[in-house]
């Protein structure tokens, strides 16, 4: 079997070049974050654009009984749906494993970094707490969905204001009370092709890749979440390199939230 | 009565182009009672009394004689299935692939392997879905290396230009080998990937401005600007 | 009670503010966004392409397949559970019936044209916004179409004939009737007609007249959005 796309990508990488002329650690332009794209319905919403990849996310809040083992905490629920609208290869139907992986990695980043203080979501211990639903949808999939989805989720959370809560019921009218974010866990995914490490990959580059590593970092450089994907192994040296790059790129992406 | 639009105007499906019997509906338009109507999103082209529509968008529709760039998708005992950008794959039979005597049961992948790119000619189209190809003909061959970009098939004539004049501009300025398939696939190869990017940008510019005046000059300007920039 | 003034101050035959854009999803063969009031619909077209499973194929012509979906955060109340519902399946069907009369897919036997409609934000008139966006997306995909289709909800609020009901009006206490209609532009043929409520034949006559004028306005907007796609800004 011949894979002309992979051959071409490899050929360029051996010359330290990428098909669109970018450096290995360069994001596509533009990078845009737009808040409140669904402000009349969602408690928080946002659109993120990285090059040609576009992802939207929205937050809905609901009240339910807390889990028995954490009676004074609320929780989040992250759901990524790979809409057939965004990619000719996506099909209708129950979420494929790629969607589930994306959802769980974004969830992990937010949960493990305690970006949302779950205790602040408690309304009445053991009885009522807020659930924060985060729904993420690619609109145009041109590669690097991990990073775009994560950014969209964070932006939607940043945009979120609580609805009213009266007499034990949620009234879906916006209050001025924002959902507080303690930090911003930024994901940066690196794809490994041969011995080269690339960020913000296009679909062609992703199809030619051996492995990937998503590293979620906080402002202080700590790492709340990581996820390795792909068929081939990565060396410990490469992992440490990828972490360095992610911490660096995390700082760069974080600027877009100011 | 008469023409309701101008030559080179962009029109939408259902748009009334002319009324009365003075004009005749040609390719891309149809008559309904006394109205001539646009059949798709396109560019009006009026020649004498004929109103024609050049499509501005849309996937490739195969015609015999089209030389296209295909990708080998599947191999059976006696033929190859080739992806040429139509809903169903086209077929390249053994006898149309090579003049060699091919023994029954031999491994066809030695000739064309899955994933390989070929320049091939459409010989036959039956009911728009059964498409036959041949590799026997001038210029038909395997493509090695390089990259493929895709453009809207209806823009290919503009990208090639009169007697190849437009694409030659791009080839000469960037020193790239470029082959344009009628199916909107364009193969570009060179030793200098930066020049390839210039060629790609130029082609994409032609694609998006194909319907506008003065394109040749703008392309010349763009190419000389880029080449200077790289020197 | 007489509905003497519209809650948002519009005239009875006035549409909510509209925004339309074509070519918003690069990976799709055709795409469009249609926003009317607070309702925002996105449509993407992929095709003609291979149709699986094989038994769905039609050897005489390509077929149209429409999917309607609301994003989980698109409703003003609770979160919408992801996945198809009976309502979304019905809407997929009527939307397909609203568009296929103008589509000519004889040149693509055995294949399928897939239309995906997603609602980003909903405030009434979603199926009409979806149809209007889908018609632009189908044209943007370069498909042969005899005409465009524009759609709008007309109806009765109390006793008053209105155009483009918003959610408040749909939920009007004294009763409201919702009549989504889709029409072609050349000869105003109706490709979608549903009624939910109560109307007399005389009222229907009036409603159809109002719908014709409203669809005509929407059609002008569709035309402009499609043509604007080819304006090159330097």
If you had to describe this structure to a student in words, what would you say it looks like?
The complex is a heterotrimer of chains A (258), B (231) and C (234). Chain A is 25% helix and 34% strand. Chain A is α+β, with helices and mostly antiparallel strands. Chain A has a single domain, classed as GHMP Kinase, N-terminal domain (Ribosomal Protein S5, domain 2, 2-Layer Sandwich). In chain A, the strands form three sheets. In chain A, strands 1, 2, 3, 4, 5 and 6 form a six-stranded mixed β-sheet that branches. In chain A, helix 2 crosses helix 3 (145-158). Chain B has helices at 94-97, 156-160, 165-174, 193-209, 215-230; strands at 2-3, 10-11, 16-19, 24-25, 29-32, 35-38, 42-47, 50-55, 67-75, 79-83, 90-93, 117-126, 130-134, 141-143, 147-150, 177-180, 185-189. In chain B, helix 3 (165-174) packs antiparallel against helix 4 (193-209) and helix 4 (193-209) runs antiparallel to helix 5. Chain B folds into three domains: 2-55, RNA polymerase II/Efflux pump adaptor protein, barrel-sandwich hybrid domain (OB fold (Dihydrolipoamide Acetyltransferase, E2P), Beta Barrel), CATH 2.40.50; 67-143, Nucleic acid-binding proteins (OB fold (Dihydrolipoamide Acetyltransferase, E2P)); 147-230, 2-Layer Sandwich (Ribosomal Protein S8, Chain: A, domain 1). Chain B is flat and about 65 Å long. The longest helix of chain B has 17 residues, at 193-209. Chain C has a single domain, classed as Ribosomal Protein S5, domain 2, CATH 3.30.230. In chain C, the strands form two sheets. In chain C, strands 1-2-3-5-4 form a five-stranded mixed β-sheet. Chain C has a four-stranded antiparallel β-sheet with strand order 7-6-8-9, with helices on both faces. Chain C has helices at residues 86-99, 126-140, 167-170, 201-228; strands spanning 18-22, 30-36, 39-50, 63-70, 111-121, 149-157, 160-163, 176-184, 190-193. Chain C has 234 residues and is α+β, with helices and mostly antiparallel strands. Chains in contact: A-B, A-C, B-C. The interface between B and C is medium-sized, with 30 and 36 residues.
